[in-house]
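Worked Example 4.2. Consider the chain below.
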Amino acid sequence: MRGWLAFSLANIPVNLQITRFYEPGFAQDLKPFYPAKTVPAILHTDGSVWTDSLAIIEELASRHPQSGLLPDNPAERAAARSLMAEMHSGFLALRSDCPMNTRTAYTQTPVSAAVKVDLDRLESLWSKRSGTWLFGAYSAVDAYFAPVAARIAGYSLPVSEQAQTYVDAHPRSTNFRQFRALGLSFDEQSTYRRDYHEKPWPGPALLDAQATSRTDSVNKACPYSGKAVHDFLEFKGKVYGFGNPRCRDKTVIDPEAWPAFMALAT
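Applying the procedure from the previous section yields the following C-alpha cells:
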C-alpha cells in the first residue's frame, strides 16, 4: 500500500505487476526484480531495483524533490522521516494481531495489552498535527501511516476522538479509495480473514455501477489510457467503455474514486 500511495501522491506513472502473498507464483513473480525477496519492489527504467517501502519513498523524494512527498520545511521534513522510520520498524503487535484487510471490517475485535501499547503510541504521534494530515497537505508520512489507520478503522479499535478523526480521513481520501478498489478487483485471500463480527467497510458509500455486455458506450476511448474501448460498465443508466477488464473492474467497485471517469460521467 505505502509504495503505491507514494507513486500516486507524486503523480509518477508506474506500470503495476500484481502478485499475491502465500501463493506458489510469488517467488516467480519477483524474479525480474532480483535481489528483491518481498514487495513492494521497483524496477526502474534505468535498470536499478528499489526494495523496501521506506527506501522507495526516500528515492522517489530524492529524484522528485517537488513532488510533495516530504515537507519543504527542514524541521518538519526531519520529523516526517523520523515518524516513517518508527512506523517502518514498529507497531508489530498491531500489525500481527490485525492483518491488513480493506475488504472486510469487524467489530468486537479483541485488543491485547501489546496492541493497546501500540495504539497509545500512535495517539501520541498523531496528537501534534494541526489539521487533517500530519504536516499540512497529505504527504508520504500519511501514506506510511495509512496501513495502521486502515487497521484501526477496519477492526474498530479504540482510540480517542482526535485520533479517530485522522483514521477516518484515510478511507475517504482519493488515493486510498483507488488502492482499495484495485485490491477488491481481485479474489479474496482467506489468509486475511478473522472470525469476528463483521460490519460495513467504514468509508464513503459507494456509487452503484455494474459490468455490462452492452457496447453502446458514450465514449470511444478509455478515460485512463485513451485506447479503444473493449470492456463496459453501466452507471446511472449509461454505458461507458474501458481499454481492458481491470480498468472497468476498478471503476465498477468505486466509480467516485476515479476523477477521470467521473469527469466523463458528469
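The beta strands are 41-43, 49-51, 105-107, 197-199, 210-212, 231-235, 238-242. The chain has eleven helices and seven strands. Compare this with Example 4.1 before moving on.
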